[in-house]
Design a protein that fits this description.
By secondary structure, the chain is mainly alpha-helical. It contains eleven helices and no strands. It has one domain. Helix 4 runs antiparallel to helix 5. The two termini are about 35 Å apart.
Length: about 300
């Protein structure tokens, strides 16, 4: 096995593990600036993780091994998702491959493990949040698969390395299906990261929680694991969107710099969206994501009718 590829893969995982908590922190910091508030530091998520790591574990009654092992399953799924991502322009050697469908499955596994804990403990608010999260997941995962299908068509493969190379350069921007994929994936990013108008990450009202509802029974290190996993989901989705749907070209160093720049643009976009848009009603979320599915479907039809540029 190529030692350079192994080193790149290890570095990518370490970077994802270490930098992921910074992403929601930057969004909160930018949102505070846009609203004229001082707001928390971008490093606040690290402080929260350090505080939670020093607290003892909490085991509600009744609960089983499902509750105890769920945080480990979630962390393992997100860590595996970091391995599946490809590094722009650099060789990688993930032992589990770089298939886009596998990435979707790992994200779904993490969501399913969290939902199971709500049924395990029987908490009313946790069950409410888990049911809402699964309802959103039905739409957002289908939309994510459509977006990845659009990105896979030019590459002729679901391998993320081939998809990333097919999306490089300027020719792809002459394809209407690529623009459809970009718009649809923007809706995926909002939903998968739990941002408004889908969810409100700042709420402390149990009746309105979606993504954070199933976490109400957790504390200490278990909650630290789950909060890191939520940050890692930000990392996976934003890196995936930047690699497949945003402009990138040139040597590997230039692509990495472009990736950092596009990540900041995406974080700023999430902050602006949360500042300007209010949380929508729960029953309107499938319509919102269904709009993205319609746009992605138009892109797929365009590919087979119009063809390549």
């Amino acid at each position: 096995m190529n030692l350079t590829a192994v080193a790149v893969e290890v570095g990518q995982i370490a970077l994802g593990v270490g930098v992921a908590p910074l992403l929601p922190g930057v969004v909160q910091w930018l949102k505070a600036k846009l609203q004229g508030r001082r707001g928390p530091s971008p490093l606040q998520p690290y402080r929260e993780l350090r505080r939670l790591w020093g607290k003892s574990r909490f085991l509600p009654q009744p609960s089983t091994v499902v509750y105890q092992w769920a945080p480990s399953v979630v962390v393992a799924a997100l860590a595996s998702a970091l391995m599946v991502l490809s590094v722009p322009g650099l060789p990688t050697a993930s032992p589990i491959g770089h298939d886009a469908v596998l990435l979707v499955g790992l994200l779904a596994l993490a969501r399913f493990a969290i939902a199971l804990t709500a049924w395990d403990t029987g908490s009313g608010f946790a069950l409410m949040g888990a049911a809402r999260d699964l309802m959103v997941a039905i739409s957002v995962e289908a939309l994510l698969i459509l977006c990845l299908a659009l990105a896979a068509l030019p590459a002729g493969s679901t391998d993320l390395r081939a998809m990333e190379e097919a999306a490089a350069g300027g020719a792809i921007w002459l394809s209407p299906e690529h623009w459809c994929g970009l718009v649809a994936f923007a809706l995926v990013a909002v939903a998968e990261t739990g941002r408004q108008p889908i969810d409100n990450p700042d709420t402390h009202l149990e009746l309105t929680m979606i993504h954070e509802g199933p976490l109400l029974e957790y504390a200490g290190r278990d909650l630290a694991y789950l909060q890191w996993a939520a940050s890692a989901r930000h990392w996976v989705i934003l890196v995936l969107g930047a690699e497949l749907f945003l402009p990138h070209a040139g040597p590997p160093v230039a692509r990495l710099v472009e990736l950092v720049g596009w990540m900041f643009v995406a974080l700023a976009g999430l902050a602006v969206t949360e500042t300007m848009v209010v949380k929508m009603r729960l029953l309107r979320i499938p319509v919102f994501l269904g709009t993205g599915a319609g746009i992605a479907t138009i892109g797929i039809v365009s590919w087979f009718t119009v063809g390549r540029p």
